[in-house]
Amino acid sequence: MRATRFKTLFVLAALFAPGFFSTGCGMELETGYKYRPLNATPTQRRGYYASPYSMEKAAADQEAKQGSHPAVGG
């Protein structure tokens, strides 16, 4: 009796676990917030808030393509 109850709970948990763990795992929230890495350079941070076709955005995109990172501790 007890083993049957355990098996039933195990089967139900196995059925519902993928749906439970797959919800809410995106990098973007419902409000539109997007994750910004903490190690971004000042140019890249300005690009986050610049309008899409501005000089700041173009400079940030160029720097991101080059893969430059800020110096440690500086």
Task: Characterize the largest beta sheet: strand count, sense, and whether it forms a barrel.
Answer: none
Percent helix among the residues? 55-70%
| pLDDT < 50 runs, ≥5 residues | none
Distance between the termini: 65 Å
β-strand amount: under 5%
Q: Rg to the nearest angstrom?
A: 23 Å
Structural class, from secondary structure content? mainly alpha
The succession of helices and strands, N to C, reads: HHH
* Global morphology: rod-shaped
Strand segment count: 0
Number of domains: 1
Number of helices: 3
Question: Averaged pLDDT, please?
Answer: 75
Describe the fold and architecture.
The model has no long low-confidence stretch (mean pLDDT 75). This protein has one domain (2-66). The termini are far apart. It is rod-shaped, with a radius of gyration of 23 Å. Helix content is 55%, strand content 0%. By secondary structure, the protein is mainly α. The chain contains three helices and no strands.
Characteristics of this structure?
74 residues, single chain, mainly alpha
